[in-house]
Write a structure and sequence with these properties.
The chain is mainly α. It has one domain. About 85% of the residues lie in helices and about 0% in strands. The two termini are about 35 Å apart. This is Amino acid transporter.
Length: about 210
Amino acid sequence: MLDGIHLPLILGAALIAAGSPGPATLAIASTSMTSGRRFGLALASGITSGSVVWSVAAAFGLSAAMLANVWIFETLRYVGAAYLLYLGAKSIRSALRPKGIAIAQARYVSWRQAYVKGLVLHLTNPKAILFFGSLYAVGVPAHTPPESLAVIVLAIAAQSLLLFHGYALLFSSAAMTRGYLRLRRPLEALFAAAFVAAGVKVLLSRAP
């Protein structure tokens, strides 16, 4: 079924891209430590869903069509950058709040909001379009049958699910939570700086 397709190589490339530090891992770490495991897992589910959407789009050539229409890519780039800057602003506000208020507010976050946050974060990430587009263009031969594409999509989805949810479990551990409570303000300031830096980087990027 997978003749001519090097699945381990494809999964290795996807693992490196998904596991490397970026907005997704940053958001999972921030949400898991500040709002707890349930919300971290919900956000990770949203990010995984976004990854599946772009993987399916690339498998069927939709990402290539989007890149051919630069205005679509540019729109996503601006929306993604604005969303990352918004997350940075939220982290700044959290760093400035008194400890008790910040923790109390974190308890009232809806898991649906966390899921949507993860989904929007990944759907507005132009680098996801570029990555999946290049992954399928280089790693998957032309005229690959639909059943083989389905296997690749499912394999990448399963790997993404394990990775992102593993991050959520790691960062929501008791040790991580205690560390966050001790160092809440500097950590929130660090999250804010990282989100803003990612937003500026996306804003300054250009379509290939």
